[in-house]
Every structure is written in structure tokens, then in C-alpha cells.
Amino acid sequence: MVAWYRRPWTRDPLIAFLLLGGSIFAIERIAAPGRGGDAADSSGNAIVLTDALEQRLASDFQYLQGRAPDAKERAALIARWLEDEQLFREALHLNLHRSDAKVRARLIDTLRQLWRDTRDAPGEATLQGYFQANRERYLREPRLSFDQVFFAGRAPEGALEKLRAGETLTGDPFWLGNRLEGYGESILRSNFGGTFYELLWQAPLDQWIGPLRSPRGAHLVRLTGRDDRAPLPFEAARAAVLTDWQAEHDRAALRARLKQLEMRYPLIDERSRATSMPSSIRN
pLDDT for 243-270, tens place per residue? Predict the structure, then answer.
């Protein structure tokens, strides 16, 4: 059994993301009036050290080291925090968070998480209704069954004719075996390649063909079964239904938030071929 423990909230990655995003937005608003100059001593840019913050630094140290910091270590923690805070604010002052693609992406992802739909998980009736309303999405992928004789290099001369005549050939070992039953399209494409799959799908039943090439070698194959897409029962599709339902509601919640931001961040479309932004851009 895997041991379970409650991780302090200060060590939670999501909390760290949220704090990072919140700090940047808050500090930007504080620092904005002084952006045009170098007035580093402005009271609006003051760094405030509190007892609670010092205690948090000490608690983090104890969590990692298993003991409380001594006076020298506590002073070093505060000095490092102050150094990081100064560098962080200067990075904002220089707009590095706008030009660094990784920081930009991290902040965007953080805000997407913050603005997710927070309603309770849907009940079975809601999921069933969503499943029925979007039935065409939840289909089992096509499946193929076939026999094969595999050769790591080239297929021997006359091998196909011998198989068609009813002879038995051994070939080389293949990790999936020589008889594959009901394999889905995705696994066949990933293991044998798209061309192999397409040719096999179109092959006549119960007739040896080939050799078909894959990244692993040459295959003489005999198609024994072909099943087209078929509707999945609800239980088989339940996980996908829940994911899609949540994604749809998250997207609706995000669109509502973005609608509120349109006045704050209006778009000026200076493209010569367009005079206005199509509504589809925001959808």
C-alpha cells in the first residue's frame, strides 16, 4: 500500500502557481505608477517583512530539514527571501514576465485553472443526458483481426505463394504474436504505421497478402475480421463523458470571464485584410 500523507499547503504545486499569478497581478498594480522612472524608494514599492512571513519561512525550513532553523539560518532565510523578492519585482519592472514564453504560458495556465467551472461534479442523470445528446462522439474505434508471418528483414522469395498454397511458414518472432484479434486502429497505426493499416483495412478477408512493410520489417498478413466503428455503451464511455462535460463547462466559464475583459483589453485589428475580428476567434 502506498503511504498517504497530507502535504502542507505551502508545498502544493497548484497553490504555488496561484500565488505566483496573484503576486504578479498584485505587484504589477502596485508598481505601475512608477514604471516610467527609476524611483526605487517609492513607498508604493516597499517590501514588507512580517512575523507571519518569517514564521512561514521557518516552517518551510523545518518541513525540509526536520528541525527548526537556528538564529543564523533564520537570518539567512530572510536574506534570501529579500533577495528573491527584489529580483522578482525588478523582473516585473523590466516586463520579463511578458517576454519569457515559459513564464507567460505558466501564468496563462494558472489563470485558466483559477477560472475553471467550480460547480460540483455532475450526477449520473446529468452525465447520461450529456452522453445521449452527444452520442456520435462516443464510438469504439475500428478493429481488425489478422494472422501474420513476420520477417525482420526481407520476406523470402516465394513465401507469399507458399502461404496461399496452404503451407506453413514460421518467420521471425514478433512481440505481439502471429495472431492478432480485435486490435483497434490507434494501436495498429502506432505499431505498424498508417500505410500498413490502410492496406490491411482494404484487404480481402481470408486471403494472404503482402509483404506489408512496418518499421520492424516485412509482414505477410491474412485479414480474418474487420469491425467498423460502433457505439460505446455508457459505462465504457463514462470517463470520456465526464472529461468532455467538465471541459465544456470550463470553456463556458472562461468565455464569460473573457467577455468581461473585452472592455479592459479591446482588440485593435491592424491587419490590412480585416476590419474587424470574427467572433469565432473568441470561441
Answer: 888 888 888 888 888 888 878 877 777 7
Q: Say what the alpha-carbon torsion angle 69, 70, 73, 75 is, to the nearest 10 degrees.
A: 110
pLDDT digits (tens, 9 = 90+) for 31-76: 444 443 333 444 467 888 999 999 999 999 999 999 999 999 999 9
Q: Give per-residue burial for 178-210: e unless 16+ CB within 10 Å, then b.
A: eebeebebeebeebbbeebbebbeebeeeebbb
Taking the CA of residue 270 as centre, how many other CA atoms within 13 Å lie in the half-sphere pointing to its CB? 0
Distance of CA 43 to the CA centre of its chain: 42
Nearest of 112, 101, 94, 10 to residue 52 by alpha carbon: 10
Q: CB atoms < 10 A from the CB of 100, how many?
A: 13
183 grid coordinates: 486490435
The Cα–Cα gap between 124 and 129 comes to 8
Given a cut of 60, whether residue 275 has pLDDT beyond it is no
Helix (H) or strand (E) holding 111: helix 101-114
DSSP class of residue 276 equals S
What's the Rg (C-alpha) of the chain? 31
| Average pLDDT of the residues in 110-115 | 84
Counting every residue, how long is the chain? 283
**How many Cα atoms sit within 13 Å of 257 on the Cβ side?**
13
CB atoms within 10 A of CB 222: 21
Distance, in Å, from the CA atom of 269 to the CA atom of 273, rounded to the nearest integer, reads: 10
Distance in angstroms (rounded) separating the CA atoms of residues 273 and 180 = 54
Residue 279 pLDDT level (bands cut at 50, 70, 90): low
